[in-house]
Specification:
Helix content is about 25%, strand content about 15%. It is α+β, with helices and mostly antiparallel strands and about 100 residues long. Keywords: Heme, Iron, Metal-binding.
Length: about 100
């Protein structure tokens, strides 16, 4: 079962000692990965603890490889709490039309 994490919790983890990021509403603890990140630790610290779409946009814009996306799964710790998501998908309801 995936843990649901409020944005407030993520925002507290934006430092060297605790670095959490949000990508596509999924929360990742990248604290241990910072030193290995090819772009440097500062890239992760710049987006840590921020709400979407900051990390999401940055992650997709840079064009990460399939290997990078696979590696990311290792750091998944939960999903962002729904009411905290600023970019949640819009759900449209179909409108019915009754002709008499």
């Amino acid at each position: 079962m995936t843990e649901v994490i409020p944005l407030e919790q993520v925002q507290l983890r934006n430092k060297e000692g605790q670095t959490w990021i949000i990508i596509d509403r999924l929360v990742y603890n990248v604290t241990e990965f910072k030193a290995e990140h090819p772009g440097g630790a500062q890239v992760l610290l710049d987006i840590a603890g921020k709400s979407m779409p900051d990390a999401t946009q940055a992650f997709h814009d840079i064009g990460h490889s399939g290997d990078a996306k696979e590696l990311l799964k290792k750091f998944l710790i939960g999903v962002l709490e729904e009411q905290d998501s600023e970019t949640r998908p819009i759900r449209r309801r179909a409108k019915a039309c009754i002709l008499l």
